[in-house]
Amino acid sequence: MPGKYAFGGYFFGTPANLTTTWNGSGEPGQYGFYFQGDQMLYREPSPAPEPVSSGGKAVVDGKSLSEPVSMDKPKLSKQGLSAFNLVTMAPGYAKANNFPFYFQSGLVYTGLVPGRGEDLTMASIGYGAYQGGVVSPSKSYTAVVELGYRYQINGWAYVQPFFQYFARPNGTPEVANASVLGFLTGLVF
Asked: Using CA atoms, how far apart are residues 7 and 175, in angstroms rounded to an integer?
């Protein structure tokens, strides 16, 4: 089953007070690391191959000695369950970075509804941890849970209603938790 994994890091800037910002102040270089993992977890059964005819009778198992064997690879189903995950860490500059630690994880099922093989059913969670004691009042974390369904209108357009729930939207209990119902549309070129 297909999957992609990546690990990396970044650094930009120069040592302390050698990088000049837009307002003329000196800033040290900044760095961070990330890990991303996307993996298909379950694939629905692929469609059965078309039977090959041999002298008036169908050859389904490919064991005919008089007909050539098809060299075409079997077409695998795109329908099934996949997971996506991302973790980022940027601990060295907490004042300049809202979330020194952030992760998101989710599941996507392609073709969950019978007869709707291109539609996506999605569930995800995201969590960002603030650097404690750096800002006043001290912020702790922000989290979001999201559910959605992408309805594929045709080969190049979709509509996606979604629901989001935000816990501690500003990192403090001073801002109330929020629920959002919405939809988006998209065109694929």
From this structure: 35
pLDDT in the model for residue 79: 93
Secondary structure, 3-state, 109-154: EECCCCCCCCCEEEEEEEEEECCCCCCCCCCCEEEEEEEEEEEECC
CATH topology of domain 3-45+74-187: Porin (2.40.160)
| Token reading at 106 | 């989710």
Which of 147, 146, 136 has the alpha carbon at shortest distance from 170? 136
User: Exposed, middle or buried by CB within 10 Å (0-12, 13-18, 19+), for 173?
Assistant: exposed
pLDDT less than 70: residues of the chain: 13-29, 48-70, 92-98, 132-137
